[in-house]
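Lecture notes, unit on protein representations.

Consider one protein chain, 180 amino acids long.
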Amino acid sequence: FIYHETQDFENWNRTLQEFEAYMQQQNAADPYMRQLTLVILYSSYLEYCNSTEDYVRGEHYLNLVEKYIQGIDAPLYEINFNSIAASYYRKTEQYEKALAKIDNALGNIRQGQVNDTDYHDFLAQKADMLHKMHRTKEALPLYKAVRKYRDSMQVVTIDKQYAQLKKDYKADTFLLEQAT
């Protein structure tokens, strides 16, 4: 759903309700797929509640996802849910629980389920949680690792931009020489 990025909360909620109504109409021919779909639905509701700061309702959806995610072998769904749940716990100042969700996500990411950028984003979140919990000595090496990674990504990006500029310069120079 793109509604989070656009802050279109009314349409986001309406879409979730329509999706939920659709799910209720579906038969239970494939219970595993229904379970996966409910994890997606309730995770999306939790993200909506986080965005609208409706933490009472958010807790309800958090508990539903916790119920339905059991027994699912779908690391990407687990990573997504852990990210949303960590956000919920951060916003409700339950830092130990947020840290546990971040650690769960990092555990799945280490299994090669997502790219390095996502891994380092979770590492930065973990460092932030540790810092909020006044565990700065634990947070510092994580911040350093994230900074090193981000610096290396910036160097790669700059190198690519520089290579493209050189290529464009050579092409422009060639065209100018041909014109004269």
